[in-house]
Amino acid sequence: MAAAELTGYRGRSVLVAGAGASGAAAARALLGLGAAVTVADRSADRTAALAAAGAGAAISLDGALPAGTDLVVTSPGWRPDAPLLAAAAAAGIEVIGEVELAWRLRGPDPAPWLALTGTNGKTTTVRMLEAMLRAAGLRAVATGNVGLPVLDAVLADPPYQVLAVELSSFQLYWSPSVRPFAAALLNLAPDHLDWHGGYDGYAAAKARVYAGDPVAVYNADDPAVTALAAGNPRRAGFTLGEPAPAQLGVRAGVLLDRAFGADPGDGVVLAAVADILPDGPPALPHQVANALAAAALARAYGLAPAAIRAGLRGFVPERHRNAPVAAVAGVSYVDDSKATNPHAAAASLAGYPRVVWVAGGLLKGAPVDDLVAAVHSRLAGAVLLGADRDAIRAAIGRHAPDLPVVEVSRTDHEAMGEAVRAAAGLAQPGDTVLLAPAAASMDMFTDYAARGDAFAAAVHALESA
Predict the structure, then answer these.
(1) Bridge partners (DSSP) listed for residue 185
(2) Which residues pair with 333 in a beta bridge?
(3) Where are the alpha helices (DSSP H) in 54-97?
(4) pLDDT > 90: percent of the chain
(5) Which of 260, 272, 306, 348 has the lowest tally of Cβ within 10 angstroms?
């Protein structure tokens, strides 16, 4: 890091809002640069841990800024109208996120960022990209919303050669200066509307990934994404169909690149569709789209086809993403607990011909009518649980009034077991019981992983009964 960057934070009074993974990374980095850091968080344990490292601790979140504060670094989940952040804005104090801080703390020869965002598929795609970069022999890491704070990746010693950066809409909102080398927008559908104040605000945050005119990778099958990328002078689309010039797509069972290379002409074969998840069931359409997006970012960075194929073949998906659990009495049970919004659930449901759908949770303001209208012909039944199950039940009533529906009203640890048993009662041999909730999990579970684990445990209990 340059000397000016080392000294630029020395003595500054910085409030870090939120002491989770990204907030803790920001606090540690700022303390190391000599800043006077105060941390605000509801968790006394989190603030105590950072206090031991030299930070001041503030449990109150009522909007009273520490005297002398001249910068606020917020965790991504904090909304702009949170009292502390609103107070900072009213006082003219800059508010940025941990990702923005990481961008500002890059050294004189920083690793390029290959960034991606979208409503769904981000983590799978960034992990695929990481696998491709590593297959090319590069020191690379997936960072950002995927778990490793970007600050930790930027400040790593030895340094990384390139970063695969997953960015949420929240992170992008708080990152006004980030300018990736190449950036992808995977898809766009209503989500987090409560946080952004509506769809337009959400879409505007996602569009920030294209700031600075990077190589703009976009989903050519998604009109909203195509429109957002249209103003960028360097574009590469990806499609599940035959690729046009300046696109990647699929032809005769292979992934084809007509966008990159000295003279792509009729196209460069990157891999076979069968190379995507080679040890599992055939890749679903949205998984193929994820692979194309990752390949486009990798090709923008100059990777050869061999690294694309090797990365795809070596990629291991994370849990709770269309993960087969078991087959019981001729019925397949699949955990896609990560389908936390209607767009993700639609992609998941489209992969199975006849489904008993386990759904419900916190919809976060997202509408479900389009989802139910699109998939009702595939449904053999539905089991609904969670806080917003009534909204899903109402949509089913409008679009599939004859569909058998079971509602689970309990919210304790036995709820998922009851749901799985009810789904088994609706299913016939050859059906798939699919947990694709279309909603967040925090009304009943710690997170989507805990929800998926509860589903798997209930299936295994059914299996052993």
Answers:
(1) 117, 218
(2) 326, 433
(3) 83-90
(4) 76
(5) 306
Give CA–CA dist 138/161, Å, rounded: 6
- Judge whether 296 and 259 are in contact, CB under 8 Å: yes
Query: Nearest-5° angle of CA 142, CA 145, CA 151?
Result: 70
Q: What secondary structure letter does DSSP report for 233?
A: S
What 143-148 contacts at long range (C-beta under 8 Å, 24+ apart), as own/partner pairs, is 144/99, 144/115, 144/168, 144/171, 145/76, 145/171, 146/122, 147/21
Per the listing, tokens 């010693």 go with 157
| Superfamily covering domain 323-464 | Mur ligase, C-terminal domain (3.90.190.20)
Domain boundaries, the chain: 11-93, 106-314, 323-464
- pLDDT tens readout for residues 280-302: 778 889 899 999 999 999 999 99
328, β-bridge pairs: 331
In this structure, the chain runs to a length of 465
Residue with tokens 């990647």: 248
- Closest by CA position to 391, among listed 414, 421, 364, 411: 364
Place of tokens 């050519």: 220
Instruction: State pLDDT tens for residues 36-62.
Output: 999 988 877 777 878 877 887 765 677
Token pair, residue 118, equals: 């979208």
- The angle, 0 to 180 degrees and rounded to 10, between the axes of the packed helices 305-314 and 285-300 is 140
Instruction: Return the exposure string of 325-358: e unless at least 16 CB atoms fall within 10 Å of the residue's CB, then b.
Output: bbebeebbbbbbbbbbbbbbbbbbbebbeebbbb
Count other C-beta atoms under 10 Å from residue 405's C-beta. 20
Q: Which CATH architecture has domain 106-314?
A: 3-Layer(aba) Sandwich (3.40)
C-beta separation of 192 from 76 below 8 A: no
Element (H, E) at 417: helix 415-426
Report which secondary-structure segment, H or E, holds 48.
helix 44-51
Dihedral Cα 456, 460, 461, 462, nearest 10 deg: 100
Q: Could you confirm whether domain 11-93 is CATH 3.40.50.720? A: yes
pLDDT at residue 4 in the model? 40
